Amino acid sequence: MESHNLIKKRNFILLLIFWLLYFVHIVLYHFIAADPHLIVFISGGILLLVVTAMYYFRFHPTIIMYSFFICYYAYIAYMTSIEPAVINYLFLFLGIIVSFIYYSYIAIVISTLMSIVIVLYFYVSNTLFTSVTFVKLDIVYFILFTLITMIILLYCAHFSKKLIAITTIKMNKTEDELYSAQEYLQSFLHTIATPLPCSA
């Protein structure tokens, strides 16, 4: 139950961040792009509305978490297919970094696999190197970078989970000690307040 509440809080934070990034992207894209594609903004807004609706209607937090990644990678893949650029490919790795916020091994691994699948798709379809000035060997570095990012984040998540577990144990121990001290104090005060029996 506690882990669900933590995931729910992180879902809410990500919702706020992604809505902010979405509006920033609209503004920047409008001024920077020579021929902005309106369909990109519409599709991004629809995906964000879907996840927001899921949060509002109280879907299971874990389902919302994975929906975040599916919608994010769908948006980046669609945007990259319309306008292939180095910056769009780099945003594929942002999903892996964002997955770290959940401290979930599964989320980090799934996010990494989705990044690799999308990069490989563009590689196989010959759009990865025709639209951007890369050499064919760069696909290896893309995948290596993705895997290294995943390993680092998995380690950080493992380390963070251990710290949280140690902190929780210490807090529980402190609470137990305080509760025992409180019971002892109440017992002591009760003993003092009880009058001694009079001897005949």
Give a description of the structure.
This protein has six helices and no strands. It is mainly α. Helix 4 runs antiparallel to helix 5.
How many alpha or pi helices?
6
Give the topology string: H per helix, E per strand. Answer: HHHHHH
Percent range of helical residues? over 70%
Q: Which class best fits the helix and strand makeup?
A: mainly alpha
Question: Whole-number radius of gyration?
Answer: 26 Å
Q: Major beta sheet, specifics?
A: none
What would you call the shape?
A: elongated
Please sum up the structure shown.
The chain has helices at 2-32, 38-56, 61-82, 86-99, 105-124, 138-193.
Notable traits:
200 residues; mainly alpha
Summarize the SSE layout with pairings.
Elements: H1 2-32, H2 38-56, H3 61-82, H4 86-99, H5 105-124, H6 138-193
